[in-house]
């Protein structure tokens, strides 16, 4: 909820920074605390599970809704991908101009699986039905099959599914 509140206030850089910190803490907790698992709740001040009134860890081996947090934070705040509308087949990708290789394979968009990979100034997409991709630099129609968008020259090449 904190990350979403920060985003609504325009603090996307801080939301990304805090998301990375939380994910690092969850990974550190996973590595250092037995059992090695995603916990139901975490300490707000250090990378370890939260404790109950008796001082023991809360509910080991029950991650419940806690498993959704790292998936959502990684996808939305770290990678920057948000599905705007599955019905309209629109994806927004908050992609910095000069980014390291990032993306996702098999992102569910309705009944389709979409691949989005950015590496430097090139974005490669693949889908069975096509979709619209919005990035800060512009909006692109990505047809079914593979699509390559070169952001430096604002050109796009596409091929039919399986042609490459």
Structural class, from secondary structure content? alpha+beta
Oligomer: single chain
Number of folding domains?
2
Intertermini distance: 42 Å
The helix content is: 10-25%
Order of helices and strands: HHHEEEEEEEEE
DSSP summary: helix tally: 3
Mean pLDDT: 85
What can be said about the biggest beta sheet? 5 strands, antiparallel
Strand order of the largest sheet: 3-4-5-8-9
Query: Rg, please?
Result: 19 Å
- Estimate what percentage of residues fall within beta strands: 25-35%
Beta-strand segment tally: 9
**Tertiary shape:** elongated
Low-confidence stretches: 158-164
In short:
The protein is an alpha+beta fold. It has helices at 2-8, 12-32, 68-79, and strands spanning 81-85, 90-93, 99-109, 112-120, 122-127, 131-135, 138-142, 145-150, 155-159. The model is unreliable at 158-164 (pLDDT under 50).
Task: Describe the model.
The chain has 164 residues and is of the alpha+beta class. It has 2 domains: 1-79, no CATH class; 80-159, no CATH class. Helices cover 24% and strands 34% of the residues. The protein has 3 helices and 9 strands. The strands form 2 sheets. A 5-stranded antiparallel beta sheet has the order 3-4-5-8-9, with no helix packed on it. Helix 1 runs antiparallel to helix 2 (12-32) and helix 2 (12-32) packs across helix 3 (68-79). The longest helix has 21 residues, at 12-32. The protein is elongated. The N and C termini lie far apart (42 Å).
């Amino acid at each position: 909820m904190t990350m979403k509140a920060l985003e609504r206030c325009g603090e996307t850089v801080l939301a990304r920074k805090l998301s990375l910190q939380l994910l690092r803490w969850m990974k550190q907790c996973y590595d250092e605390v037995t059992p090695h698992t995603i916990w139901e709740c975490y300490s707000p001040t250090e990378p370890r599970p939260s404790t109950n009134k008796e001082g023991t860890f809360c509910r080991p081996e029950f991650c419940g809704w806690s498993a959704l947090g790292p998936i959502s934070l990684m996808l939305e705040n770290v990678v920057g991908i948000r599905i705007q509308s599955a019905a309209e087949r629109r994806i927004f990708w908050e992609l910095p101009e000069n980014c390291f290789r990032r993306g996702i394979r098999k992102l569910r968009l309705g009944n389709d699986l979409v691949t989005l990979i950015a590496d430097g100034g090139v974005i490669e997409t693949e889908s069975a039905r096509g979709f619209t991709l919005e990035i800060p630099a512009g909006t692109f129609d990505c047809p079914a099959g593979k699509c390559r968008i070169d952001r430096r020259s604002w050109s796009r090449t596409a091929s039919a599914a399986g042609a490459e």
